[in-house]
C-alpha cells in the first residue's frame, strides 16, 4: 500500500533521528552554498546508448552551470601498441572524435571537452576521476559489450562500486522514448531511511530541483519487523508485528514531515511518501514507477551499510532493478559537518566491517 502523508510538523522523531537545525547535518538550502557538482565527466563508448548519456550529462551541466568533459577509450587500443601504427591510430582517433562530436552537437554541448584516448578504460577513467575538478561521473547502464537482455553491464557496475565521486547511471532508452528531446527533470525522488548517511543525498537533490524547477518526492519504505518465532505466528505475534510496523511508520512520518517543512521554506515543491506492507526495496522501485520520477537520487550507503561495502543493499538493488536514471551520491571526503546547538549522540560514520569484533 502506498500512502501520501500530510506535511504536518509534530516535533522531532524519536532517538535523535530528526534534526534541530539545518546546519546540524549540512543540508541547508542549496542556493546559499556552492554548486554541488563543480565538474561533470561523461563516459561514452560509441554505442547507440551514448546519445542518452550525453543528453543527461548536458542537461545537468546546463542546470548546474558546471563544465562538461567527455571520455572515450578506443576498444582494442593500448598505450603501448598505438605508436606501432601511428597512421591507423590517427585514423581511428579522428573517426571516433568526429562521431562523438556529432553526438555532442546533437545534445547541444558544443563547448564540452572531448578526449579520445588509448589504453585501459578503467585506468584512463580513474585518472580523470582523480582530478579534483570532476565530482560527477555519468555513464550508461549498458554499453557495447552488454548482453542484449542485460539491465546493467559490468563496466557500469564497476564504476558505481569503485568511483570516488558521485555517479549517474543512465538506462537505455525504451521504445516510448524514441524521438524524445533532451533529458528533463520534472520530478525527482529521494529514498531516505532516517539516517544521517541517507541524508547526504539531499544537497544534490535540492540543487537539481532548484536549478530545474523540479518537484522533490521524499520517500521512506517502512521495514518489515523481524520477530523470532517457532511455527506459525499466533495472535500475539501478529499483533506485535502490526504494532511495531505502525510505530515505525509514525516515527518515519514525524521525521519526514519535519524534513519536508524545513526544505520547503524557500518555496520548493516537496512531497513525502511512506510506503509499506512489502519488501522495502521492491516498494521503492514501484514507487518510482507510480510517481513517474525522472531521476532517483540516493546516497551510496544508508543506515545498514558496512565499511567494506561499496554500495548499500538498497543502492545495489536499485542499480540492478530500477530501470530509471539513478544518481548515487558520495559526499566529499573533506566536507565537515558543523555541530548542532543541542548535540545528540552521533551515529557512527561507518558500520563496523562484518566479521570484525
In brief:
This protein is of the alpha/beta class and 357 residues long.
What is the element layout, followed by pairings?
Layout: E1 2-4, E2 40-43, H1 50-64, E3 68-73, H2 86-107, E4 113-117, H3 121-129, E5 136-140, H4 154-162, E6 166-170, E7 187-191, H5 196-199, H6 202-212, E8 215-221, H7 235-263, E9 270-275, H8 280-290, E10 295-299, H9 313-321, E11 326-329
Describe this protein's structure.
With 357 residues, the chain is an alpha/beta fold. The chain has a single domain (2-10, 25-329), classed as Rossmann fold (3-Layer(aba) Sandwich). Helix content is 33%, strand content 15%. The protein contains nine helices and eleven strands. The chain has helices at residues 50-64, 86-107, 121-129, 154-162, 196-199, 202-212, 235-263, 280-290, 313-321, and strands at residues 2-4, 40-43, 68-73, 113-117, 136-140, 166-170, 187-191, 215-221, 270-275, 295-299, 326-329. An eleven-stranded mixed beta sheet has the order 1-9-8-7-10-11-6-5-2-3-4, with helices on both faces. α1 (50-64) crosses α2. The longest helix has 29 residues, at 235-263. The two termini are 39 Å apart.
Amino acid at each position: 500500500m502506498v500512502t501520501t502523508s500530510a506535511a504536518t510538523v509534530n516535533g522531532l522523531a524519536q532517538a535523535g533521528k530528526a534534526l534541530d537545525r539545518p546546519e546540524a547535518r549540512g543540508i541547508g538550502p542549496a542556493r546559499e552554498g556552492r554548486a554541488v557538482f563543480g565538474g561533470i565527466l561523461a563516459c561514452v563508448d560509441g554505442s547507440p546508448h551514448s546519445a542518452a548519456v550525453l543528453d543527461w550529462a548536458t542537461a545537468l551541466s546546463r542546470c548546474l552551470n558546471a563544465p562538461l568533459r567527455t571520455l572515450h577509450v578506443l576498444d582494442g587500443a593500448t598505450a603501448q601498441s598505438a605508436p606501432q601504427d601511428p597512421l591507423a591510430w590517427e585514423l581511428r582517433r579522428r573517426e571516433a572524435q568526429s562521431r562523438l562530436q556529432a553526438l555532442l552537437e546533437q545534445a547541444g554541448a558544443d563547448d564540452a571537452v572531448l578526449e579520445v584516448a588509448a589504453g585501459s578504460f578503467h585506468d584512463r577513467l580513474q585518472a580523470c576521476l582523480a582530478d579534483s575538478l570532476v565530482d560527477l561521473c555519468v555513464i550508461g547502464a549498458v554499453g557495447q559489450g552488454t548482453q542484449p537482455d542485460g539491465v546493467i553491464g559490468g563496466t557500469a557496475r564497476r564504476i558505481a562500486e569503485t568511483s570516488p565521486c558521485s555517479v549517474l547511471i543512465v538506462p537505455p532508452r525504451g521504445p516510448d522514448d524514441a524521438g524524445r528531446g533532451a533529458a528533463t527533470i520534472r520530478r525527482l525522488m529521494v529514498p531516505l531511511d532516517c539516517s544521517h548517511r541517507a541524508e547526504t543525498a539531499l544537497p544534490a537533490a535540492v540543487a537539481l530541483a532548484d536549478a530545474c524547477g523540479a518537484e522533490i518526492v521524499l520517500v521512506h519504505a517502512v521495514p518489515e519487523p523481524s520477530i523470532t518465532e517457532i511455527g506459525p505466528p499466533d495472535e500475539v505475534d501478529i499483533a506485535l508485528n502490526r504494532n511495531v510496523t505502525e510505530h515505525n511508520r509514525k516515527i518515519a512520518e514525524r521525521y519526514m514531515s519535519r524534513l519536508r517543512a524545513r526544505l520547503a521554506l524557500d518555496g520548493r515543491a516537496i512531497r513525502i511518501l511512506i510506503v509499506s506492507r512489502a519488501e522495502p526495496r521492491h516498494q521503492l522501485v514501484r514507487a518510482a514507477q507510480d510517481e513517474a520520477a525522472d531521476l532517483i537520487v540516493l546516497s551510496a550507503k544508508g543506515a545498514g551499510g558496512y565499511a567494506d561495502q561499496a554500495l548499500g543493499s538498497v543502492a545495489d538493488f536499485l542499480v540492478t532493478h530500477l530501470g530509471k536514471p539513478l544518481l548515487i551520491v558520495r559526499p566529499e571526503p573533506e566536507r565537515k559537518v558543523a555541530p548542532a546547538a543541542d548535540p545528540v549522540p552521533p551515529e557512527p560514520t561507518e558500520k563496523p566491517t562484518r566479521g570484525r569484533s
